Amino acid sequence: MLVSTLPKENNKFTYASVAGSLILSELLKSDKSIMNFWKIRGNYAEVGGTADSYQLNYTYYTAGYFNTGNGNVNIYRPQTILNNENLKPQRSKEFEFGTEVHFFRDRIIFDGAYYDSKTIDQLIRPDISAGSGSLGAAINAGQINNKGIELHLGVTPFKTKDFSWEIDANWARNRSKVVELDEGLQVYQLTSLVGGASIVASVGNQWGDIYGSDYAYLNGEKVVDPATGLYQTESGKVIGNVQAKWTGGLRNSFRYKDFSLSFLIDVRHGGDVFSSDMYYGLASGLFPETAVDGYRTNIPVLAGVNPNGQVNTTPVNTAVIDPNEYGNNPNDGYAIVPDKRFVYDGSFVKLREASITYSLPKSLIANTFMNDAKVSIVGRNLWIIHKNLPYADPESSQMGGLFSYGSSVGSLPTTREIGVNFTFKF
Question: What is the pTM of this model?
Answer without folding.
Answer: 0.87
